[in-house]
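Researcher: Please translate sequence to structure tokens.
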Amino acid sequence: MDMTKWIILLVVLILALVGLIFYARLRKKRLYQMFEQVFESAKQVPKQKRHRFLLFMFKESILSVKNKKVNLESRMNNPKLVETQLIQMGSILKDPSKVTDKNMKRALQMYDAYLQWEKSKFK
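Model: Translation complete:
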């Protein structure tokens, strides 16, 4: 009886591990698909504003995931809002250590992961 409990426990642990590995690969695949879309949309932005735009896109994507009520398209169509956000993103990129907002920290992590992905893509 004691041996069957250990076997069941081992099977459950193996299944949980396989599930975690599958989830991690699926998440990584979706993240890379998002990076491909961001890469294509960043081609339309002037080079001097590209990094600010990327950080802005990651910030907006995080906000849209957390708050489903926010209409991303209406925010992106407002040129004054976009320009002020790009200025703010430029100051954040100059000194990222001053960031205290969790969403902005997550956006910076995604930005760094994107830059690594972009470097590996062009190698």
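Researcher: Any highlights?
Model: The chain has a mean pLDDT of 87.
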